[in-house]
Amino acid sequence: MEDSEATLRAAEDVVRLLKEHQVEAVVIGAVALAAYHYVRQTEDIDLGVNASLPALREVTRSLQEAGYQADLRAPDGDDPLGGVIDVRGDFGSLQIVSFAGRFPAVIDDAVCASDLVVREGSPLKLVPIPHLIALKLYAGGFKSKADIVALLVRNPDLDVEAVKSLCEGYRLSGLDELVDEAEQERP
User: Fold this and answer.
1) Do 14 and 61 belong to one domain?
2) β-strand pairing of 92-98 with 44-49
3) Nearest CA-CA partner of 13 in 91, 126, 98
4) What is the pLDDT of residue 1?
5) Cα–Cα distances in Å, from 38 out to 34, 35, 107, 174?
6) Considering the entire predicted model, what is its pTM?
7) For 13, how many CA atoms within 13 A lie in the half-sphere containing its CB?
8) Mean pLDDT of the chain
9) Among 62, 65, 73, 79, which residue has the least CB neighbours within 10 Å?
10) How many whole angstroms separate alpha carbon 133 and alpha carbon 131?
């Protein structure tokens, strides 16, 4: 990030604005990966939410009124996401990613289970690692699977059985193969 402090402040402001619309958020994406010992180059912060399309429209309008450049990308029928708001400004960029109507339970559960924040006093909650793995498994694709393996390798004390149980509860498959791959990569 060009100015990580400015980006964090903007994300904290955006989370406060989301709460005004009764929308809770957790940090997902590269910032969450870094919190769990897997640093990947990023230029933005991703916030996972469970917000309907009408709520996303209201949030977009509020962001614009607050001085942010904000654009809503509504989902089409095949989209695995429930909509994305791209937020830009002098700070850089961030995304608000909604899983409403697609995979809302993981976000709702992550908000309830989250007990870590990006820094003391921040409203930016980090997605718990089991839920991050579930989101990556839901996303699928090579990059997401590689992220899961990296998380498993870099977090050897992680309760893998609990992660498996969580993913099974969401009816997600494919984790066993990634666990096997991570075990082969561990020193």
Assistant:
1) yes
2) parallel
3) 91
4) 40
5) 5, 7, 21, 21
6) 0.92
7) 18
8) 93
9) 65
10) 5
Helix/strand/coil for 84? strand
- One domain, residues 121 and 175: no
Identity of the residue numbered 157: D
Which tokens sit at 130?
């089991």
Residue 27 structure tokens: 């940090």
- Which stretches within the chain are classed as H helix? 4-20, 30-35, 53-65, 104-113, 129-139, 141-154, 160-169, 175-185
Distances in whole angstroms, Cα of residue 2 to Cα of each of 15, 37, 83, 93, 174: 21, 21, 26, 10, 36
**CATH code at position 79:** 3.30.460.40
186: pLDDT confidence band, cut at 50, 70 and 90?
A: confident
Domain that holds residue 144: 129-187
With a cut of 90, say whether residue 67 has pLDDT above it: yes
Answer whether 148's CB lies under 8 Å from 178's CB: yes
Give the number of residues written for the chain.
187
Tell me the pLDDT tens digit for each residue of 23-60: 999 999 999 999 999 988 776 899 999 999 999 999 99
Strand order in the sheet with 92-98: 25-28, 44-49, 92-98, 84-89, 69-73
